[in-house]
Design brief:
Keywords: Amino-acid biosynthesis, Aromatic amino acid biosynthesis, Glycosyltransferase, Transferase. The protein is of the alpha/beta class. It is built from 16 helices and 7 strands.
Amino acid sequence: MSNVFRELLKKVGSGNHTGENLTRAEVATATRMMLLGEATPAQIGAFLIAHRIRRPTGEELAGMLDAYDELGPKLQPIAWAHPVIVFGIPYDGRTRTAPIAPVTALLLAAVGQPIIMHGGDRLPTKYGLPLVEIWQGLGIDWTSLPLSKTQQVFEQTGVGFVYTPLHFPLTKTIWEYRDQLGKRPPLATMELIWCPYAGDAHIIPGFVHPPTEAMFRVALGLRGVTKFTLVKGLEGSCDLPRDRTAIIALSVPNAPIEIERLLLAPHDYGFTTKNVPLGSTEELVAGIHEVLAGKSGELMQTALWNGGFYLWQSGICPDMRSGIVKAQELFTSGAVAAKLQQLSKVVNSLFQPV
C-alpha cells in the first residue's frame, strides 16, 4: 500500500462536508502513481469512483494533464502554415450517430491543415465504435505503427493518430478499472483535452454536459493553452449536431479563460435538422466512400456541415458559408479522396520490409 496515495484518497473520498479538492500537483502525483502501478488496486478503484462521484475541478484536470505530458507520447513539431488541430473525442466511441471526424480530418489535410487524433479500441463504458475501426475500414491501420512511423505519416500527409494501446500502454490498467467500475472516471474527461503533440496546437474537444465546458476552460487556462474550440457535439464528440443548434465556445486571444460564444443552427445554412443514425461499421464506411466520391445524401450533408465549420475555424475560409462551398468543391473534385489514397499509400509503405 502507498501511504502517499492513501492521503490523497482520503481527501477525495471524505464526503461533501470533510472532503477536499486536490491541488494540481497532488492530482499529478495521484495520476502518475495510478499509471505506474504504485498505488494498490483497492486504492486505485476507490480513488476513481470517489473522484467520479465528487466530480473534478479544472485545476485537477490540469494536474492529470501534467502527468500525461510527463509519461505519455507526443508527436514532434513540424513546420506548418496553420497550428495543428487536435481532435478530442470520447475513447469509448459512438453507438447512436454516425461519426464524421475521419472525413473532416481528410478534408482539412487536403488543404494543408494538419490534424491529430488519439484513442484506442472498443473500450468501456459504451464499447462504441472507435475512430481506429473507421480508419481500418477505410484501409488505414494505425494499430501496428510505432510512434516513429506515425511521425513519418504525419510529416508526409498531415494526418496523425496516437494509438494509445501501443503508444501509451500505461493507460491500459485504467481501462480495466473503468470496465470493472462501470463508470467513466474523470480521467475520461481529461483525455478529451489531452494534446499528444509537442508543437503549436489548436485543441478541439467535444463535450456533453455544460459544466464540463467550464472545467475545460480552467484547465486549459492553467496549462497555458491559448487556442481552443469547445464543441457540444454528438455523443460528446466534436462532430457538430444537425438536430439542434450547435453550441460552441471559441478561445479569445490574450484572455486564457474567456470565450466567444457561437451558436450555429443547421437550418440557417440549408441543412435538414436530423442526425445520421449509426448502423453497422460496414454501412458507415460505404457511406463515407460515397461522400469521398462526391455523392449527395444525408452523410454528405453532415460532412459539409462539419467541413464548412472546421475550414472556417482553421482559417482556410473566412466564414461558415464559404467553408461549406469550399468543402463541396473539395469533395466533388476528388481532392479528399486523393488525400485518403495518399495516406493509404504512405501507411502501407511503412509495413513493407526494409
